Amino acid sequence: MTLKISVIGTGYLGVTHAVCMSALGFHVIGVDIEPAKIDSLRAGIVPFYEPGLEELLKQELASGRLRFTSEISEIADSDVHFVCVGTPQTETGLAADLTYVNNAIESIASFAKPGSLVVGKSTVPVGTAARLRQRLLELNPEVDLAWNPEFLRESFAVEDTLHPNRIVIGVVTDTAEEILKAVYATNLAEGVPWVRSDLATAELVKVAANSFLATKISFINAMAEVCEASGADVTVLAKAIGYDPRIGSRFLQAGIGFGGGCLPKDIRAFMARADELGVEDALAFLREVDAVNLRARKRMIELVHADLSENLQGKRIAVLGAAFKPNSDDIRDSPALDIALQIFGEGAFVTVHDPKAMTSAALRYPTLAYAPTIEECVAGADLVLHLTEWEVYREIDPLVLKGLVNQPIIIDGRNALNRDLWVGAGWHFRAMGRQTL
Ligand code: UDX
Asked: Catalytic: which of 20, 84, 262, 377?
């Protein structure tokens, strides 16, 4: 019998998971409390940009296996309920806000059928799953709970969900593992590593992985600071250390640092939880990771001052990139927009371009100016900032662009442009962690 699956929460994670589960052949119902989201998804429109997802959504809606609803009671005949709601940073501190996860468990408990399994996917502080399981058993003793962290990257979400590099499940009972093996049978057959653990370890795997990635980025950004001070080149340094397979070359791209809906909030929530557990010293280094990351944005502003002037009043600055990373329209904690806003706050005329994130950026930050094309963005600029490394920016002909700006000065905040090309075209080229040419 084919399993019936419900997915609670149709944000980034939930939509992708629901669509991919349907693509694997399951009957899936996606549930959200926001009717507008449901209307959009029913119409085959993904409310954010993720390569390949909208096509797959349309295909799966047409297959008849995938439905969306705002009525939580419709999960009643599902065998597995994936919890994919958000756990944002609280307004008042570093900790994660668990309101949505708590509410989801309460609602699922009212409608879940006996023998069904609730599977948490949201990123939560260690200890949450055990507490939620206890609450669920109080409300509905015939339902079990497991934790199955999600490691998908935005802009590779479909690929990462259909072909994960590992599946981690935190379970208390063998039955829960058997159900999850049925859900992930295709991946298991493909030989994807399967890691069974207790609930706490499964929760920790996610935040530990994100902390490691954040540390790697801040490590190379700290090296960039040393390179700038000593006349060295961080891009060559990263390449050279990356050849050591124990280090590896990925996530060693120095620049304005990490942002998005996961890394910043996850390391902060992890520190807050360590505090509660009395092991704050163990994660003290993450404070430094966060500080190095935020300092990268400040350093970029200092470079702007160095290249233009201390006083930015009336200067025209073109910002290429608004999303927190390329191939995404996600602007949550975007380093690019943070920098754009800071220089705007100092009196500069800031014009932003982004291939996909301009609508969301303009809605959130209407005071910045937005230009529909790269050419219009840089027209008359005193300085160009390259802040999100979209492919289209790498393809720019610096000679053509030079004819449009007021003065040919560019700062590459992502170390992604071909310096020789830009310098050869007559640009004053600065990049983080490298010497200026
Ligand atoms: C991250 C994790 O990679 C993923 O496994 C987890 O499930 C969710 O959090 P994501 O937020 O999509 O995924 O972005 P990621 O690709 O990790 O990039 C995060 C940030 O780091 C971006 O702002 C990116 O520009 C920056 N980054 C990445 C660097 O500054 N340098 C690098 O070398 C790599």
From this structure: 262
